[in-house]
Design brief:
353 residues, 15% strand, globular, binds nicotinamide-adenine-dinucleotide
Protein backbone atom coordinates (compact mmCIF):
# COMPACT_ATOMS: atom_id res chain seq x y z
CA UNK A 1 0.00 0.00 0.00
CA UNK A 2 1.34 3.44 -0.88
CA UNK A 3 0.04 6.91 -0.11
CA UNK A 4 -0.94 7.63 -3.71
CA UNK A 5 -1.67 4.07 -4.88
CA UNK A 6 -4.04 3.61 -1.94
CA UNK A 7 -5.36 7.02 -2.90
CA UNK A 8 -7.65 7.65 0.02
CA UNK A 9 -5.65 9.59 2.63
CA UNK A 10 -5.82 13.36 2.80
CA UNK A 11 -2.33 13.97 4.09
CA UNK A 12 0.70 12.02 5.23
CA UNK A 13 3.53 13.88 6.92
CA UNK A 14 7.05 12.57 7.49
CA UNK A 15 8.77 14.23 10.46
CA UNK A 16 12.47 13.95 11.27
CA UNK A 17 14.65 15.44 13.99
CA UNK A 18 18.11 13.95 13.66
CA UNK A 19 19.45 15.13 17.03
CA UNK A 20 16.78 13.41 19.10
CA UNK A 21 16.42 10.45 16.70
CA UNK A 22 12.76 11.24 15.99
CA UNK A 23 11.35 9.61 12.89
CA UNK A 24 7.58 9.94 12.81
CA UNK A 25 4.84 9.63 10.24
CA UNK A 26 1.50 11.34 10.83
CA UNK A 27 -1.33 9.98 8.72
CA UNK A 28 -4.54 11.95 8.23
CA UNK A 29 -7.17 9.83 6.53
CA UNK A 30 -10.06 12.27 6.73
CA UNK A 31 -10.99 15.57 8.33
CA UNK A 32 -14.53 15.49 6.91
CA UNK A 33 -16.02 15.37 10.42
CA UNK A 34 -13.45 17.53 12.20
CA UNK A 35 -9.79 17.43 13.23
CA UNK A 36 -8.30 13.97 12.83
CA UNK A 37 -7.90 12.20 16.18
CA UNK A 38 -5.83 9.10 16.82
CA UNK A 39 -3.01 7.94 19.06
CA UNK A 40 0.73 7.77 18.54
CA UNK A 41 2.19 4.28 18.23
CA UNK A 42 5.85 4.08 19.26
CA UNK A 43 7.17 0.88 17.80
CA UNK A 44 10.42 -0.63 16.43
CA UNK A 45 9.15 -1.33 12.91
CA UNK A 46 11.38 -3.51 10.72
CA UNK A 47 11.33 -0.93 7.92
CA UNK A 48 10.05 2.49 6.89
CA UNK A 49 7.62 0.70 4.62
CA UNK A 50 6.14 -1.26 7.52
CA UNK A 51 5.74 1.95 9.55
CA UNK A 52 4.01 3.67 6.63
CA UNK A 53 1.73 0.69 6.05
CA UNK A 54 0.71 0.70 9.72
CA UNK A 55 -0.02 4.42 9.88
CA UNK A 56 -2.13 4.30 6.71
CA UNK A 57 -4.14 1.35 8.05
CA UNK A 58 -4.54 2.74 11.55
CA UNK A 59 -5.53 6.26 10.48
CA UNK A 60 -8.20 4.86 8.16
CA UNK A 61 -9.51 2.71 11.03
CA UNK A 62 -9.73 5.77 13.29
CA UNK A 63 -11.83 7.68 10.73
CA UNK A 64 -14.38 4.86 10.76
CA UNK A 65 -14.25 4.45 14.55
CA UNK A 66 -14.68 8.17 15.26
CA UNK A 67 -17.48 8.47 12.70
CA UNK A 68 -19.51 5.61 14.20
CA UNK A 69 -18.84 6.86 17.72
CA UNK A 70 -20.74 10.00 16.74
CA UNK A 71 -17.73 12.26 17.32
CA UNK A 72 -17.09 15.46 15.41
CA UNK A 73 -13.61 14.22 14.70
CA UNK A 74 -11.91 12.81 11.67
CA UNK A 75 -9.45 9.97 11.55
CA UNK A 76 -5.71 10.12 11.97
CA UNK A 77 -2.86 8.28 13.62
CA UNK A 78 0.86 8.67 14.03
CA UNK A 79 3.75 6.26 14.33
CA UNK A 80 7.16 6.93 15.79
CA UNK A 81 9.68 4.52 14.33
CA UNK A 82 12.08 3.14 16.94
CA UNK A 83 12.32 1.22 20.18
CA UNK A 84 10.71 3.35 22.90
CA UNK A 85 12.92 1.70 25.55
CA UNK A 86 16.02 2.85 23.67
CA UNK A 87 15.18 6.25 22.22
CA UNK A 88 12.21 7.78 24.04
CA UNK A 89 13.35 11.05 25.63
CA UNK A 90 12.02 14.48 26.56
CA UNK A 91 13.62 16.09 23.50
CA UNK A 92 12.24 13.46 21.13
CA UNK A 93 8.69 13.75 22.49
CA UNK A 94 8.84 17.55 22.44
CA UNK A 95 10.21 17.54 18.90
CA UNK A 96 7.29 15.33 17.97
CA UNK A 97 4.91 17.77 19.72
CA UNK A 98 6.25 20.62 17.59
CA UNK A 99 5.47 18.71 14.41
CA UNK A 100 1.93 18.03 15.68
CA UNK A 101 1.57 21.75 16.44
CA UNK A 102 2.79 22.63 12.95
CA UNK A 103 -0.33 20.96 11.53
CA UNK A 104 -2.36 23.75 13.11
CA UNK A 105 -5.05 21.50 14.60
CA UNK A 106 -5.67 19.23 11.62
CA UNK A 107 -4.46 16.36 13.83
CA UNK A 108 -4.94 15.66 17.56
CA UNK A 109 -2.68 13.06 19.08
CA UNK A 110 -3.17 10.70 22.06
CA UNK A 111 -1.69 7.48 23.54
CA UNK A 112 -1.35 4.16 21.78
CA UNK A 113 0.98 1.15 22.01
CA UNK A 114 4.31 2.40 23.40
CA UNK A 115 3.07 5.82 24.58
CA UNK A 116 1.52 6.73 27.93
CA UNK A 117 -0.36 9.61 29.55
CA UNK A 118 2.91 10.95 31.00
CA UNK A 119 4.35 11.07 27.46
CA UNK A 120 1.35 13.10 26.32
CA UNK A 121 1.98 15.54 29.17
CA UNK A 122 5.46 16.11 27.69
CA UNK A 123 4.15 16.36 24.11
CA UNK A 124 1.64 18.93 25.43
CA UNK A 125 4.48 21.29 26.34
CA UNK A 126 4.88 21.91 22.61
CA UNK A 127 1.36 21.52 21.26
CA UNK A 128 -2.22 22.18 22.33
CA UNK A 129 -3.46 19.47 19.94
CA UNK A 130 -3.04 16.55 22.33
CA UNK A 131 -5.45 14.55 24.45
CA UNK A 132 -5.25 11.43 26.62
CA UNK A 133 -3.34 13.37 29.27
CA UNK A 134 -2.94 12.59 32.96
CA UNK A 135 -5.68 13.44 35.44
CA UNK A 136 -3.35 15.99 37.14
CA UNK A 137 -3.39 17.97 33.89
CA UNK A 138 -7.15 17.75 33.41
CA UNK A 139 -6.88 14.60 31.34
CA UNK A 140 -9.33 11.74 30.95
CA UNK A 141 -6.97 9.22 32.58
CA UNK A 142 -7.33 5.49 31.97
CA UNK A 143 -9.38 5.03 28.77
CA UNK A 144 -9.92 1.31 29.41
CA UNK A 145 -12.73 2.22 31.85
CA UNK A 146 -15.09 3.44 29.13
CA UNK A 147 -13.68 0.99 26.59
CA UNK A 148 -14.91 -1.85 28.81
CA UNK A 149 -18.22 -0.07 29.42
CA UNK A 150 -18.75 0.30 25.67
CA UNK A 151 -17.88 -3.34 24.98
CA UNK A 152 -20.42 -4.34 27.63
CA UNK A 153 -23.05 -2.15 25.91
CA UNK A 154 -22.27 -3.68 22.52
CA UNK A 155 -22.54 -7.16 24.02
CA UNK A 156 -25.89 -6.32 25.61
CA UNK A 157 -27.21 -5.07 22.26
CA UNK A 158 -26.05 -8.26 20.52
CA UNK A 159 -27.71 -10.31 23.26
CA UNK A 160 -30.96 -8.43 22.77
CA UNK A 161 -30.72 -8.97 19.01
CA UNK A 162 -30.02 -12.70 19.34
CA UNK A 163 -31.91 -13.72 22.48
CA UNK A 164 -34.47 -10.94 22.92
CA UNK A 165 -32.99 -9.67 26.18
CA UNK A 166 -30.02 -7.38 26.84
CA UNK A 167 -29.32 -9.09 30.14
CA UNK A 168 -26.42 -11.53 30.20
CA UNK A 169 -27.72 -13.18 33.35
CA UNK A 170 -27.06 -16.90 33.19
CA UNK A 171 -25.09 -16.62 29.92
CA UNK A 172 -21.58 -18.04 29.76
CA UNK A 173 -19.18 -15.35 28.57
CA UNK A 174 -15.60 -16.20 27.63
CA UNK A 175 -13.10 -13.37 28.13
CA UNK A 176 -9.69 -13.82 26.48
CA UNK A 177 -7.28 -11.32 28.02
CA UNK A 178 -7.58 -9.98 31.55
CA UNK A 179 -5.65 -6.78 30.96
CA UNK A 180 -6.76 -3.21 31.53
CA UNK A 181 -10.01 -3.62 29.59
CA UNK A 182 -10.69 -7.31 30.34
CA UNK A 183 -10.66 -6.69 34.09
CA UNK A 184 -13.30 -3.95 33.95
CA UNK A 185 -15.37 -6.04 31.54
CA UNK A 186 -15.36 -9.02 33.94
CA UNK A 187 -16.66 -6.70 36.67
CA UNK A 188 -19.62 -5.57 34.51
CA UNK A 189 -20.40 -9.15 33.49
CA UNK A 190 -20.31 -10.51 37.04
CA UNK A 191 -22.53 -7.66 38.18
CA UNK A 192 -25.01 -8.49 35.42
CA UNK A 193 -25.17 -12.14 36.55
CA UNK A 194 -23.19 -13.71 33.71
CA UNK A 195 -21.04 -16.81 34.25
CA UNK A 196 -17.53 -15.79 33.24
CA UNK A 197 -14.88 -18.10 31.83
CA UNK A 198 -11.51 -16.43 31.26
CA UNK A 199 -7.92 -16.89 30.22
CA UNK A 200 -4.70 -14.89 30.06
CA UNK A 201 -1.08 -15.69 29.25
CA UNK A 202 0.13 -13.64 32.20
CA UNK A 203 0.18 -15.45 35.59
CA UNK A 204 -0.41 -12.14 37.42
CA UNK A 205 -3.68 -11.61 35.56
CA UNK A 206 -4.84 -15.09 36.58
CA UNK A 207 -3.90 -14.44 40.19
CA UNK A 208 -5.94 -11.22 40.06
CA UNK A 209 -8.97 -13.16 38.80
CA UNK A 210 -8.66 -15.85 41.48
CA UNK A 211 -8.38 -13.28 44.25
CA UNK A 212 -11.03 -10.83 43.01
CA UNK A 213 -13.62 -13.08 41.36
CA UNK A 214 -13.27 -16.65 42.67
CA UNK A 215 -16.49 -17.54 40.82
CA UNK A 216 -14.77 -16.94 37.43
CA UNK A 217 -13.64 -20.21 35.81
CA UNK A 218 -10.15 -20.09 34.36
CA UNK A 219 -9.02 -22.14 31.36
CA UNK A 220 -5.53 -22.83 29.99
CA UNK A 221 -5.58 -20.74 26.82
CA UNK A 222 -7.68 -19.07 24.13
CA UNK A 223 -8.15 -22.38 22.27
CA UNK A 224 -9.60 -23.99 25.38
CA UNK A 225 -11.82 -20.96 25.82
CA UNK A 226 -13.32 -20.90 22.33
CA UNK A 227 -13.95 -24.66 22.31
CA UNK A 228 -15.61 -24.58 25.72
CA UNK A 229 -19.36 -24.29 26.15
CA UNK A 230 -19.67 -20.49 25.98
CA UNK A 231 -22.51 -18.32 24.65
CA UNK A 232 -20.46 -15.17 24.08
CA UNK A 233 -16.80 -14.75 23.16
CA UNK A 234 -15.03 -11.53 24.14
CA UNK A 235 -11.54 -11.24 22.61
CA UNK A 236 -9.73 -8.70 24.79
CA UNK A 237 -6.10 -9.46 24.01
CA UNK A 238 -4.45 -9.16 20.60
CA UNK A 239 -5.76 -8.69 17.05
CA UNK A 240 -6.53 -11.54 14.66
CA UNK A 241 -8.55 -13.54 17.23
CA UNK A 242 -11.08 -14.48 14.55
CA UNK A 243 -9.28 -16.49 11.89
CA UNK A 244 -9.56 -19.61 9.71
CA UNK A 245 -8.78 -21.85 12.70
CA UNK A 246 -10.76 -20.20 15.48
CA UNK A 247 -14.04 -19.38 13.71
CA UNK A 248 -14.83 -23.00 12.69
CA UNK A 249 -14.03 -24.12 16.27
CA UNK A 250 -15.97 -21.37 18.05
CA UNK A 251 -18.99 -22.50 20.08
CA UNK A 252 -20.26 -19.06 21.05
CA UNK A 253 -23.22 -17.48 19.28
CA UNK A 254 -22.02 -13.91 19.81
CA UNK A 255 -18.60 -12.27 19.53
CA UNK A 256 -18.15 -8.89 21.23
CA UNK A 257 -14.77 -7.86 22.58
CA UNK A 258 -12.30 -5.03 22.99
CA UNK A 259 -9.41 -6.21 20.82
CA UNK A 260 -8.65 -4.14 17.73
CA UNK A 261 -8.63 -5.81 14.30
CA UNK A 262 -10.26 -9.05 15.41
CA UNK A 263 -10.94 -10.22 11.85
CA UNK A 264 -7.65 -11.79 10.68
CA UNK A 265 -8.42 -11.11 7.03
CA UNK A 266 -11.20 -10.09 4.66
CA UNK A 267 -13.69 -12.92 4.30
CA UNK A 268 -13.72 -13.93 7.98
CA UNK A 269 -16.82 -11.77 8.51
CA UNK A 270 -18.64 -13.97 5.95
CA UNK A 271 -17.42 -17.14 7.65
CA UNK A 272 -19.00 -15.87 10.88
CA UNK A 273 -22.29 -15.15 9.10
CA UNK A 274 -22.24 -18.65 7.53
CA UNK A 275 -21.75 -20.20 10.96
CA UNK A 276 -24.62 -18.14 12.38
CA UNK A 277 -22.31 -16.28 14.78
CA UNK A 278 -23.34 -12.70 15.51
CA UNK A 279 -20.30 -10.44 15.39
CA UNK A 280 -20.47 -7.01 17.04
CA UNK A 281 -17.83 -5.07 15.05
CA UNK A 282 -14.68 -4.41 17.08
CA UNK A 283 -14.14 -0.77 16.18
CA UNK A 284 -17.72 0.01 17.12
CA UNK A 285 -17.86 -1.71 20.50
CA UNK A 286 -14.36 -0.67 21.59
CA UNK A 287 -14.86 3.04 20.82
CA UNK A 288 -15.55 3.93 24.47
CA UNK A 289 -11.83 4.65 24.90
CA UNK A 290 -11.65 7.22 22.12
CA UNK A 291 -14.95 8.70 23.34
CA UNK A 292 -13.31 9.12 26.76
CA UNK A 293 -10.16 10.85 25.45
CA UNK A 294 -12.06 12.92 22.88
CA UNK A 295 -14.16 14.36 25.70
CA UNK A 296 -11.01 15.90 27.13
CA UNK A 297 -10.86 18.32 24.18
CA UNK A 298 -13.91 20.13 25.64
CA UNK A 299 -12.71 19.81 29.27
CA UNK A 300 -13.14 16.31 30.63
CA UNK A 301 -16.47 15.33 32.13
CA UNK A 302 -16.70 11.63 32.99
CA UNK A 303 -20.50 11.44 33.17
CA UNK A 304 -20.91 13.09 29.77
CA UNK A 305 -18.35 10.74 28.24
CA UNK A 306 -20.07 7.74 29.84
CA UNK A 307 -23.42 8.80 28.38
CA UNK A 308 -21.85 8.92 24.93
CA UNK A 309 -20.21 5.52 25.41
CA UNK A 310 -23.58 4.09 26.53
CA UNK A 311 -24.92 4.98 23.06
CA UNK A 312 -22.75 2.16 21.68
CA UNK A 313 -25.74 0.00 22.69
CA UNK A 314 -28.07 1.83 20.25
CA UNK A 315 -25.52 1.95 17.44
CA UNK A 316 -24.80 -1.77 17.76
CA UNK A 317 -28.52 -2.57 17.60
CA UNK A 318 -28.92 -0.35 14.55
CA UNK A 319 -26.01 -2.03 12.77
CA UNK A 320 -27.18 -5.56 13.52
CA UNK A 321 -30.65 -4.65 12.23
CA UNK A 322 -29.20 -3.05 9.10
CA UNK A 323 -27.10 -6.18 8.48
CA UNK A 324 -30.26 -8.33 8.68
CA UNK A 325 -32.39 -6.14 6.40
CA UNK A 326 -29.66 -5.69 3.81
CA UNK A 327 -28.42 -9.27 4.00
CA UNK A 328 -24.85 -8.14 4.68
CA UNK A 329 -22.39 -8.86 7.50
CA UNK A 330 -22.40 -6.60 10.58
CA UNK A 331 -18.83 -5.56 9.66
CA UNK A 332 -20.04 -4.30 6.26
CA UNK A 333 -23.05 -2.62 7.87
CA UNK A 334 -20.75 -0.78 10.29
CA UNK A 335 -18.51 0.40 7.43
CA UNK A 336 -21.56 1.56 5.51
CA UNK A 337 -22.93 3.65 8.40
CA UNK A 338 -19.53 5.17 9.10
CA UNK A 339 -19.09 6.12 5.43
CA UNK A 340 -22.62 7.51 5.32
CA UNK A 341 -21.98 9.78 8.31
CA UNK A 342 -18.64 10.98 6.90
CA UNK A 343 -20.38 11.83 3.61
CA UNK A 344 -23.58 13.35 5.01
CA UNK A 345 -22.19 15.33 7.93
CA UNK A 346 -18.92 16.08 6.16
CA UNK A 347 -20.88 17.60 3.27
CA UNK A 348 -22.34 20.28 5.57
CA UNK A 349 -19.05 22.17 5.48
CA UNK A 350 -19.75 22.99 1.84
CA UNK A 351 -22.47 25.35 3.09
CA UNK A 352 -20.50 28.57 3.40
CA UNK A 353 -21.12 30.53 6.61
N1 LIG B 1 -7.28 0.21 26.59
C1 LIG B 1 -8.15 0.77 25.76
O1 LIG B 1 -8.74 1.82 26.07
C2 LIG B 1 -8.46 0.13 24.43
C3 LIG B 1 -9.30 0.84 23.52
C4 LIG B 1 -9.65 0.23 22.32
C5 LIG B 1 -9.14 -1.03 22.02
N2 LIG B 1 -8.31 -1.68 22.91
C6 LIG B 1 -7.81 -3.01 22.54
O2 LIG B 1 -8.27 -3.96 23.50
C7 LIG B 1 -7.28 -4.97 23.68
C8 LIG B 1 -6.90 -5.04 25.15
O3 LIG B 1 -6.40 -3.79 25.56
P1 LIG B 1 -5.83 -3.55 27.02
O4 LIG B 1 -5.63 -2.08 27.14
O5 LIG B 1 -6.64 -4.28 28.02
O6 LIG B 1 -4.40 -4.24 26.88
P2 LIG B 1 -3.53 -4.96 28.03
O7 LIG B 1 -2.17 -5.08 27.44
O8 LIG B 1 -3.71 -4.25 29.33
O9 LIG B 1 -4.21 -6.39 28.19
C9 LIG B 1 -4.09 -7.42 27.29
C10 LIG B 1 -4.10 -8.71 28.09
O10 LIG B 1 -4.14 -9.81 27.18
C11 LIG B 1 -3.27 -10.81 27.64
N3 LIG B 1 -2.91 -11.67 26.51
C12 LIG B 1 -1.99 -11.45 25.53
N4 LIG B 1 -1.97 -12.47 24.65
C13 LIG B 1 -2.91 -13.35 25.07
C14 LIG B 1 -3.37 -14.59 24.58
N5 LIG B 1 -2.84 -15.15 23.49
N6 LIG B 1 -4.35 -15.22 25.26
C15 LIG B 1 -4.87 -14.68 26.38
N7 LIG B 1 -4.48 -13.51 26.89
C16 LIG B 1 -3.50 -12.85 26.26
C17 LIG B 1 -2.13 -10.06 28.26
O11 LIG B 1 -1.39 -10.86 29.19
C18 LIG B 1 -2.86 -8.91 28.95
O12 LIG B 1 -3.24 -9.24 30.27
C19 LIG B 1 -6.13 -4.60 22.74
O13 LIG B 1 -6.31 -5.27 21.51
C20 LIG B 1 -6.30 -3.11 22.55
O14 LIG B 1 -5.76 -2.68 21.31
C21 LIG B 1 -7.98 -1.13 24.11
Amino acid sequence: MGVFTDGSHEQVVFCQDRASGLKAIIGIYSTALGPALGGTRFYPYASEDEALHDVLDLSRGMAYKNALAGLDLGGGKAVIWGDPDQIKSEQLLRAYGRFVQSLGGRYYTACDVGTYVQDMDIVARETQFVTGRSVEYGGAGDSSILTAWGVFQGMRAASEHRWGTPSLKGKRVGVAGLGKVGKYLVAHLVEDGAEVVATDVHPKALEWAKATYPQVSLVADATALITSDIDVYAPCALGGALNDDTVPALRAQIVAGAANNQLAHTGIEKLLVDRGILYAPDYLVNSGGVIQVADEIDGFNFERAKLRATKIYDTTKRILELADTEGISPASAADRLAEQRMAEVGRLRTIRI
